Automatic annotation (TrEMBL):
Keywords associated with the record: Hydrolase, Transferase
InterPro entries reported in the protein's UniProt record: Alkaline_phosphatase_core_sf (IPR017850), GAG_Ulvan_Degrading_Sulfatases (IPR052701), PA14/GLEYA (IPR037524), PA14_dom (IPR011658), Sulfatase_CS (IPR024607), Sulfatase_N (IPR000917)
Family designation: Belongs to the sulfatase family.
Organism expressing this protein natively: Sphingobacterium phlebotomi
Gene Ontology molecular functions: hydrolase activity; transferase activity
Protein name, entry field: Sulfatase-like hydrolase/transferase
Amino acid sequence: MKKIIAMLLLATGNIGLLWGQEKQVAKPNIIFILMDDMGYGDLGVFFQKIRQQRAARNEPWLVTPNLDRMAAEGAILPQHYAAAPVCAPSRASILTGLSQGRANVRDNQFDKALEDNYTLGNVLQQAGYHTAAIGKWGLQGVGEAPNWPAHPLKRGFDYYFGYMAHVDGHEHYPKEGVYKGPKKVWENYREISDDLDKCYTGDLFTAVAKRYITTHQQEQPDQPFFMYLAYDTPHAVLELPTQAYPEGKGLKGGVQWMGTPGNMINTASGKVDSYLYPQYAQETYDHDSDATTPEVPWPDVYKRYASINYRIDEQIADILQLLTDLEIDEQTLVVFTSDNGTSIESYLDERYEADFFQGFGPFDGIKRDLYEGGLRVPTIVRWPGSVAPNTVINSASISYDWLPTFTDIAGLPAPVRSDGVSLLPSLTQQGEQKESLVYAEYFHPGVMPTYSLFAPQHRGKRRNQMQMIQVDDLIGVRYDVQSATDDFEIYDVINDPRQTKNLALQKADIQQRMKDRVLQLRVSDTSAARPYDDVFIPGLQGIESRVSETLDVKFYALNTTWLPQVGGIEPTAVTSVNRLDLVPQDTGLVVVRGYIYAPTDGAYTFYLSGASQTFARIHERTLIDADYHTSGEEMKSTLKLASGYHPIEIYYRNVRGNSQKLQFEWRYEDGPRESWK
């Protein structure tokens, strides 16, 4: 007979009320700015200033004065990771708050429908925000336009303007289609590209963002807004704007929305794809590292990239100045980041190489790599009065931490399904910062570049199935993974950012923890198969003396429409039981934490029923999710478990007088059902 050992955590009450009473601060506006393919090394404050200070003529550099100023006015996060090293999965993880071990969009699944569940948009809607998505989407799903199943307006956004299809974001003049043909731009459900003569998308999205902010402040000044501003630059094609940036910035200057078909923004004139910034147009460099030979001009593709990068710098400054002009800068949190590492794409006849400016910074790897250069992204947070100037947050974090961060700022706990943690303690330097789960998995059938700046062992390295995990302060990476037994390369990336000194032989205990944890935290997806999908999930080792024969139960006074994370929240009551049917039937949220003991390796099926909203977790992965979608019917899930102890958490919302009590059962293979008793 299976030995059942359990501990339990329960929570009940009216969440939002008590949580809201603890958080008596005005909800700030939130602007999340996501760049496309901007590398860690593309910004002055993160790396380009190092090259500039060296002033070596064989090392060309970029300048980003406004983004550097933004960093000085707020915080930088030097060890912030993208959830994935390419566009669509990275954005899906940001929007859902899920790692690539659980998000429904993985690998290179461009235009796949974003899961119909909690998103940045709908959780902030429920927190009282007006929500807008502007720019590149690429997660709409298959369907006849404009009725895509995962249109932004169906995923929590009140307003949308931008490119719906992923590939459309590769052309920056939607009407003219200079290199990739004409593209479609949508405002909510209306296609408007016929009106967008000479509209460079970087300027267009900036003008629309400014119009939205200004109009919202005029019409709804008492309602906070959330803006997901997803630029399609500096991603290829490396197209140039029509002209210099308009004088001034903010409310009266910079790019402006004109609203007249054929002249929709004030830079929609002149010649498309034409304007090189003067500081780069005549730039030369020591191409052969020989000071005795004449310098040569920068190749055109790099003049273009530098100009695009500088244009971004001006666009962000324009938005920040608008916040100052509207006197809402202290009431607005702005996050600037990127979806993945630097790219080697130009979509021009002339190839772009990331080592010219060293856009991967002090790391090895680029877009589509799980080494640091593919996942570390430049991240800046500005919130005057709340985030101190010149703050440096050195702890590791990842892009799916933003959903819990924003709900925390809005005064609510995040949905329990979220994989991230709130970064608010680090940003404000108040409270205890929880450790982030830093994890990524990805497949790409290519190889790393052979740049001389990369370590020899990384040049031309085969990618295929890749995986990355942080355990303690060490990063584990696997390339060309064949099985769950493949060893991780283990690196101290703080002291070895290029990942040249593999510590695997010295860290056998860390190696095993990494191998176990990646199996305990992820959910397999048949659309993105992995060689470790069918491996038995390992149990916890060495805990026999610490487990109890009872379930611990805690109740919480929380009132969100979703089942929330409860870490750091004081329970209103605590009890212990040895059976679920003995849990008190008070109205409120109930969270159950326990263990089952699997006597042998095999397939175990779990059954959960009896509550209107339920969520169950085993180890760090979802077991059953009936929170956003609630059927009231019995839910089940089958997993392959290795013998040993496996922790279970169950969250559910209880209603006094409910005739159905929560039931949680499991069985091994075709055996009888068992339960805690």
